[in-house]
Amino acid sequence: MGLRLKFNLAILAVFAVGFAAAWVALERQFVASARGEVLQNARIMMAAANAVRTYTSQRVGPALAAAPRDHFEPMTVPSYAAQANFKALTERYPDFIYKEAALNPTNPTDRATDWEADFIHAFRNRRGVEELSAERDTPTGPVLTLARPITVSSEACLTCHSTPDRAPPALLAQYGSSNGFGWSMGETVAAQIVSVPMAVALETAQRNLHAAMALLAAVFAGVMVVLNVLLHLTVVRPVVRISRLATDVSLGKADAPEFAAGGRDEIGELGRAFTRMRRSLDQAMRMLGA
To answer: Based on the number of CB atoms within 10 Å of its own CB, is 275 exposed (0-12), middle (13-18) or buried (19 or more)?
Structure first.
């Protein structure tokens, strides 16, 4: 096995290990970056929903409540307003979902599914936790879900959700008296849930990963070419010349040329040492012949 082959095999082995380690590390970094981007989008959606809720509770609700009405207006409920506002978005982007899921909602359409109920129970069991996120697989690809608790923090909420006899008659006429009651102060009754698809972000992360690894492979290929050229010019070719001259000298060829040692590196020193040895050998042979 030649010196060049040994050198290339050693470099390739090191590169293979480094390439695999870089792939794993960069993949984790790109996926984490993609997840962070999706999570940030979910937080922006959540902030927009909370802005609608705040506007509804501070402006819309009081304005409509001041007018004489004999029926219940769902638009005065912050939860209803926020979810209705996002219906336009979900019609265009069906994979983006905003829901205020409750275990015992007034409106049956807000009832939590099994996986949504898990978030609510998690908030109930872990007091003080203000945000949870999780990933789940769907038929259209992975989805990241961000959830925040909805806790009864105002007596105004209990007007409609404590007992049916305290609720407005218009609300009972529209939704009945079976759902949405029995809430208590400080209880986590629901969760704001935003679901954002991850497929696009993950595909972008994979493209970035492949581009980065292709660039790394191209850099390695360039380095290998340069190293092989340098190895050939500074090591392999001079060593081959010295080897051939040594063979000629050992066979007694007196017309064998001297090795032209140039440079101050180790190969140059080896060439000069070989020349000195040859001259000493020639001198010794002449003395023996005399």
So the answer is: middle
Bridge-based pairing state of the strands 132-138 and 141-151 = antiparallel
Q: Which sequence spans correspond to the domains of the chain?
A: 3-11+207-289, 18-198
Cα 221 from Cα 165, distance rounded (Å)? 79
CA atoms within 13 A on the CB side of 99: 23
Query: Considering the entire predicted model, what is its pTM?
Result: 0.69
Q: Which residue has the tokens 């038929």?
A: 139
Asked whether 274 and 245 are in contact (CB, 8 A), the reply is: yes
User: Model confidence over 171-180: pLDDT tens digits?
Assistant: 777 777 888 8
**Residue 235 CB neighbours (<10 A):** 16
pLDDT digit string, tens, across residues 104-150? 888 888 899 999 999 999 999 988 899 999 998 888 889 999 999 98
Distance CA 152, CA 130 (A): 14
Give me the CATH topology for the region 18-198.
Beta-Lactamase (3.30.450)
